[in-house]
Each structure stands twice: as structure tokens, then as C-alpha cells.
User: Which sequence fits this backbone?
């Protein structure tokens, strides 16, 4: 699959992945259900691979501040 994004879209999606990965670590640590934990760990690993692709793909691009603000608002409305 090939996905083309402009620099702002890529930066926003990369940041969203990083935020989600951090949230998942907390949820994994807090769950007592082994099957659910295993699913979360597998999902976190898949998302970590995608985040790594974004880091390497966007390394040569300048990240803008606006996508960061947009991602924060989407993740934590009214904060």
C-alpha cells in the first residue's frame, strides 16, 4: 500500500502515532486480561513500525507547529 501525504499531514499523523503509542503503554501495564494485553502489545508493535517509517520518511522535512496543535486538540478536546 502506498500513501502520499504532504509534510503537514505526515507530521500530524506521526505525532498522533507517538501519542497513541504512549497511551498504549499505560493501558498495557494497567490491564489484567492476558489476551487483551497480548492484542495491545501486537498492535503497539505494528504502530511502532509505522511510526519508525514516518520518522525516517519525514527526517528531511521541516515539521510545522500547526499540525502539533491540531493533533493535541483532536486527542484532548478542550484541554
Assistant:
Amino acid at each position: 500500500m502506498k500513501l502520499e501525504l504532504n509534510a503537514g499531514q505526515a507530521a500530524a499523523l506521526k505525532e498522533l502515532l507517538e501519542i497513541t503509542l504512549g497511551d498504549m503503554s499505560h493501558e498495557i501495564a494497567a490491564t489484567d486480561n492476558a489476551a487483551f494485553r497480548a492484542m495491545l502489545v501486537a498492535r503497539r508493535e505494528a504502530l511502532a513500525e509505522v511510526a519508525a517509517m514516518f520518522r525516517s520518511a519525514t527526517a528531511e522535512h521541516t515539521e510545522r507547529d500547526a499540525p502539533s496543535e491540531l493533533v493535541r486538540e483532536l486527542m484532548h478536546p478542550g484541554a
User: Anything to note?
Assistant: The chain has a mean pLDDT of 79.
